[in-house]
Specification:
The chain is mostly helical. 61% of the residues lie in helices and 0% in strands. It has one domain. The chain is built from three helices and no strands. The radius of gyration is 12 Å and the shape is globular.
Length: 54
């Protein structure tokens, strides 16, 4: 299930967490790229839901 945001895909990529940024958090230092991408997408979708609720 994907959520749409009013901003363009290019703008989304500028604000989306990167794998390297995620790995800076404690407990995520050795996460695989695949798992990191899944987590980042989930966090992004959660942020959109939270934004749309306000």
């Amino acid at each position: 299930m994907g959520f749409e945001c009013e901003s363009s895909n290019e703008e989304n990529e500028k604000i989306r967490l990167t794998i390297d940024e995620l790995r800076k958090f404690e407990g995520f230092e050795t996460i695989t790229d695949s798992d990191a991408e899944t987590i980042i997408e989930s966090l992004f979708q959660l942020a959109i839901i939270g934004y749309n609720i306000k």
